[in-house]
Amino acid sequence: MTTTADQTKAVAIAEPAWADPDIGDYTALLKPRVMSLVVFTALVGMAASPGGLQPILAAIALIAIAVGAGASGALNMWYDADIDRLMKRTAGRPIPARRLERSDALAFGIVLAAFAVVTLGLAANWLAAGLLAFTIVFYVVIYTMWLKRWTAQNIVIGGAAGALPPVIGWAAMTGTVAAEPLLYFLIIFLWTPPHFWALALLAHKDYERAGVPMLPNVAGTAATRRQVLAYTAILAPIAVLPWPLGFAGPFYGLAAIILGAEFLRRAIRLWRSRDEDARQAAGSLFGYSILYLFALFAARLLEAAFAGLVGG
User: Fold this and answer.
1) What is the pTM of this model?
2) Measured at the alpha carbon of residue 220, what is the angle toward residues 219 and 221, in degrees to the nearest 5?
3) CA-to-CA distance for 185 and 49, rounded, in angstroms?
4) Quick one: which of 166, 155, 233 has its CA closest to 195?
């Protein structure tokens, strides 16, 4: 059990003397690694759309989507500053490290969110802008402010926000929503739990210290390993579906089969592992999960690019 003294010590470690912020601190608020994945999956949604990429519109839309993702990250860090300072993984972020005031992060996030939604609406269409606004609100209000601190299913439900970029990208190009981008939404939605629960297995002490009810802390590591395997077993075949449904070609289909088989192999290894072996297996699965999603969507992007060249 974590004592008040332990928490006080963690706070003291995480709160050095105030330092002047620089551009790097504001950049960190945007969560650049998360932003890059959001932009990439949105780009795939754009490229896969019936009309393909419209270069100028796509560039503006991607900037707006990136800024919207950055706004979500800044607002997340604003609200989570109290628990971020209690976790080793997040104590170095600009707010708990006392390089930025919470109020500055809040203002920064609100301005970025408004800019992103209005820009996407004016440049593309208001359906895409509405979806982007919904994504930001869902991530900040539903996930960050409510689910994250209330239920061990936080990342399952909250994963909907991170799964919407392909739908937003498609809508930005077409003004519509169709079955194909919704299938990509489902793939990312199912990918999110095994990805984050692998991380939670590595950082469960951090989450316990901060009082965040992640699955390993609530249900135990054995149950978490089973859930990771279950979601991976569902994800792997669903990720292949764009091929038989005619949304993607054999190159994507073969990539999805190979990537999914390896994902499942690592999930089985994690399920069977114990103690230190389980920690290594969780780290391996977490790292691979990032590669999996990138490679899967890269295969679809390459197919769309090739189709555009052949069609042109």
Assistant:
1) 0.91
2) 135
3) 14
4) 155
pLDDT tens per residue, range 124-179: 999 999 999 999 999 999 999 999 999 999 999 999 999 999 999 999 999 999 99
- pLDDT tens for 73-115 read 999 999 999 999 999 989 999 999 999 999 999 999 999 999 9
